[in-house]
């Protein structure tokens, strides 16, 4: 696991609790496999998950029909607040780490963070 996905609160908590399986993004991704989950602004990896697919782009109707997967409030979809988030990054098997793991957040890393060897080794031991 060499990369981490930066996710804001409360969305990361919903993924880790298992109630959210789609992380909605404005672009597609070809990345697949086990990834670290980073709480935005924390400087820590707090969990891991398997990124298994990327679906979309979705219409408003499709977004509303799949609300139980992405957990975005219907009013936010109707109002256009989330109009740019049309791709579902499908995650499964999310796990909260026993303790957060500090990492170095390099300038410019907004979506993905490349994890250094020490962090990769620490995550591999958990």
UniProtKB/TrEMBL annotation:
Entries under Pfam families matching the protein: ASCH
SUPFAM superfamilies registered for this protein in UniProt: PUA domain-like
InterPro entries: ASCH_domain, PUA-like_sf
Tree of life domain: Bacteria
Domain ASCH: 7-76
Record's protein name: ASCH domain-containing protein
Naturally occurring in which organism (per UniProt): Kinneretia aquatilis
